[in-house]
Amino acid sequence: MQTTSIGVYPGTFDPITKGHMDIITRALRVVDELVVAVALDTGKQPIFSLDERAALVCEDVRTYLGDNARRVRVCSFSGLLANFAQEQGAHVLIRGLRAVSDFEYEFQMACVNSKLAPHIETIFLTASESTHFVSSRFVKQIARLGASVEAFVSPNVSDALKAHFSS
C-alpha cells in the first residue's frame, strides 16, 4: 500500500507573495499533499488578522494553482510547528530560503524541529531567481508608502493592502 506524502509549509504570510506561491508550486513536486500553515506567530505584529491571512492564501492557491489546488489545504495554527505537523500526518516541513542570511535561522529551527519530531524531515527550497528579493516586510513597506506592489503579490493581495493602508 502506497502512502501519501504530506508536507507542511509554515509561515505568517502577512501577506502572501509571489515568492511564497513559487515555493508552494515547487513543493507540490516533492509531496503529494501540502498543508500551507498560516501561523498566529505572536513574535511578529501582522497587519492582517489570522483569518484574513488564511483567506488571502486560499484565494491565491485557488486562483493560481489550477487543478493542483486540490492538493493544498490551508490551515491556521498556533503553538509548536512540530506538534501541528504531527497532527497533520506530515512527513516533511518545507522551508523557503531567499538569501544566505535566512539560512542560519532556518537551520537552527530545523535542528529544533528534528529534536521535537525526529520522524519529520525539513527540506529547504531556495527562492527562484525571479522572487529571491521579495519579502512580505518590503511589500508592506512599499504599499504603506502608496506605490504599486502588483509585481510582488497577486491583485487580490494588492487590493487588500490598498484597503488596509487607506483606512
Overview of the structural elements:
- With 167 residues, the protein is α/β, with parallel strands linked by helices.
- The chain has one domain: HUPs (Rossmann fold).
- Helices cover 42% and strands 19% of the residues.
- It contains 6 helices and 5 strands, in the order E-H-E-H-E-H-E-H-E-H-H.
- The chain has helices at 18-27, 50-64, 81-87, 100-116, 136-144, 155-166; strands spanning 6-11, 33-39, 72-77, 92-97, 121-126.
- Strands 3-2-1-4-5 form a 5-stranded parallel β-sheet, sandwiched between helices.
- Strand 4 (92-97), helix 4 and strand 5 (121-126) form a beta-alpha-beta unit.
- The longest helix is centred in the middle third of the chain and has 17 residues, at 100-116.
- It is globular, with a radius of gyration of 16 Å.
- The termini are far apart.
- The model has no long low-confidence stretch (mean pLDDT 92).
Largest sheet entry: 5 strands, parallel
Strand content: 15-25%
| CATH class wording | Alpha Beta
**How far apart are the first and last residues' alpha carbons, in Å?**
54 Å
Order of helices and strands: EHEHEHEHEHH
Calculate the mean pLDDT score and round it. 92
Structure keywords:
42% helix, globular, 167 residues, 19% strand, Rossmann fold, alpha/beta
